[in-house]
Amino acid sequence: MSSPMSSKVYRPADMNKTFAAMRNSGDVGAMLELYEEGSQLLVDASGSGFTGKAAIAEELERLVRMPGKMTSKNTFCVEHGNLALLRADFAIVNEEGVTLYSGFTAEILRKQADGAWLYVVDHAGASRYGADA
Fold first, then answer.
1. Mean pLDDT over the full length of the chain
2. CA–CA separation, 112 and 123 (whole Å)
3. What CA–CA distance (Å, rounded) separates 7 from 117?
4. pLDDT tens readout for residues 18-30
5. What are the DSSP calls for 58-105, one per residue?
6. Which uninterrupted H or E stretch holds 51?
7. Exposure of 133 by Cβ count < 10 A (0-12 exposed, 13-18 middle, 19+ buried)?
8. Can you tell me the distance from the alpha carbon of 123 to that of 126, in angstroms, rounded to the nearest whole number?
């Protein structure tokens, strides 16, 4: 899937802010390029989720359709060889500044042959709390 927005992340600490910018632009193709082919996206604390880009694409479409602007800030990024473990705090806020969803994520990234980093496991729903909690 090609996309006008660059989806290459060469520093794992940049992954979450890149993902949020792509989500806010509505560029699902660019978001999907941040995932390895057989990666896994978990969407809640139960561990349920999606494996493979086709399944992940459907969930990313739902995320893009949600109202509000996403912000995401790393709380840590630990690199070990060609792997990185990240945790980030995120929020989706509406135009009035009301937080619609917030929580934290946990991710495992792998460095690719071209030097870019991609999601292997994206636990986007590691913990969610917000207006509906």
1. 89
2. 20
3. 10
4. 999 999 999 999 9
5. HHHHHHHHSSSEEEEEEEEEEEETTEEEEEEEEEEE-TTS-EEEEEEE
6. strand 49-51
7. exposed
8. 5
